[in-house]
Write a structure and sequence with these properties.
The protein contains four helices and six strands; from the N terminus they run αββαβαβαββ. By secondary structure, it is of the alpha+beta class. β3, α3 and β4 form a beta-alpha-beta unit. The longest helix has 22 residues.
Length: about 140
């Protein structure tokens, strides 16, 4: 069908002529309500975004530790970390170094490793322990079955 004839049909139906496949020979078009088509695409995009957020492991929760953290305080952070992991979130562990603590960066790595051991669960290191300026960080999540 010619383009002119298709346009006339679309105008009679009070709809829009939308090009579906412009690279085809001849180009493929559809007579549809363009506003409704856009709404449906947007609705599908929102739905897929919501599903990917649920299935993708949620968001990243952060826990900040210090070099001189006490046993009780680290256990409080471990409980919080376990709760985050139970809800399917990823956990970013961060140790900030202040002043003279920067002279012993290996101690920050030890604090993060100790925290991970105290979690008592199968986890995956999504981002290994690395130094970013005056802080060390690692990203962990629950190991998939």
């Amino acid at each position: 069908m010619s383009t002119g004839a298709a346009l006339i049909l679309a105008q009679q139906a009070e709809l829009d002529l939308v090009e579906v496949s412009p690279k085809a020979e001849p180009p493929v078009v559809k007579i549809v309500d363009f506003g409704k088509l856009q709404y449906e695409k947007e609705k599908q995009l929102r739905k897929s975004k919501a599903l990917s957020k649920k299935a993708g492991g949620g968001e990243i929760k952060g826990l900040r530790l210090s070099m001189k953290i006490s046993d009780h305080d680290i256990m409080v952070r471990v409980k919080a970390g376990q709760k985050f992991l139970d809800h399917g979130h990823k956990v970013k562990i961060e140790v900030r170094m202040h002043g003279r603590e920067k002279a012993h960066p290996e101690l920050a790595r030890v604090v993060i490793e100790r925290f991970i051991k105290l979690l008592e669960r199968e986890i995956t290191l999504e981002q290994p322990i690395k130094r970013l300026g005056s802080a060390f960080s690692a990203l962990i999540s629950v190991k998939k079955q």
